Amino acid sequence: MTDESGTVDSLAAEIRAADTVVAFTGAGVSTASGIPDFRGEGGLWNRYDMEDFHVRRFRADPAGFWTDRLDLAEELYADAGPNAAHDALARLERTGHLDAVVTQNVDGLHRAAGSEEVVELHGNGSRVVCVDCGERSDAEAVRERVRGGERPPTCDCGGLLKPDVVLFGEQLPEAAMLRARSLAREADVFLAVGSSLSVEPAAGLPRTAATRGGTLAIVNLDRTALSERAEYDLRADVTDVLPPVAKRVVG
Ligand SMILES: [Zn+2]
């Protein structure tokens, strides 16, 4: 216990002293809000067929895609709100101690918690995007139209609406990836939370930060692919670690 609080103190001191601090968040931050994980045992992809959510399927059968998407969305977004880890990151940003959150999560909870500099590597399922004109709008309103029988839902311009997330078979958005890489290169402290850091290309970000001399701090329940390279490797629930860290940074 003494050890652990010493670690939190020392990490907090590094964050306070750093010019650039970047957080990178994965599924562990969402599961703490009760959102089921996609991968692993009991993960959504054990219960849903990945092929149904492939971009090929969206193009070939958008009506069927949206019917299946409704079921998935109901599990993903029902009643989920930000948790103490989202709040702690938002508080660090608000007080000038965190430059950006780079996230693999698509639930939009960082923004809901008040984080403003959020780089969404896999998009955001609380929005939809028109595949023709690119206009983005609120997903829940569109899901309501789908429930009412509009399948597939379309934009005012006539284009198909697609969840604003990276589907299987799609590339990560280039602008977001470039911004994330640039943040990783600048980071004095790179805080990787709730991710096993095993899925590329995102896993390259903490490696980049460490290679460029940034302090790598990892908070995850299990050992990660980069645990050996980390100055801080905290095997714990993100909601147990981030609030005390933020508290010590902000004072
Ligand atoms: Zn449109």
Automatic annotation (TrEMBL):
Q: Which residues bind Zn(2+)?
A: 130, 133, 155, 157
What EC number(s) is this enzyme filed under? 2.3.1.286
Q: Show the active-site residues.
A: 122 (proton acceptor)
- Enzyme superclass (EC): transferase
Keywords tagged on the record? Acyltransferase, Metal-binding, NAD, Transferase, Zinc
Q: Which PROSITE patterns match?
A: SIRTUIN
Q: Which domain of life is it from?
A: Archaea
Q: Which GO-annotated molecular functions does the record name? A: metal ion binding; NAD-dependent protein lysine deacetylase activity
From the UniProt record, list the coiled-coil ranges: none
Ranges for domain Deacetylase sirtuin-type come to 1-251
Q: Which CDD domains match?
A: SIR2-fam
**Which Pfam families does the entry mention?**
SIR2
Q: Which InterPro entries has this protein been placed in?
A: DHS-like_NAD/FAD-binding_dom, NAD-dep_sirtuin_deacylases, Sirtuin, Sirtuin_cat_small_dom_sf, Ssirtuin_cat_dom
NCBIfam families tied to this protein: PRK00481.1-3
Recorded protein name is NAD-dependent protein deacylase
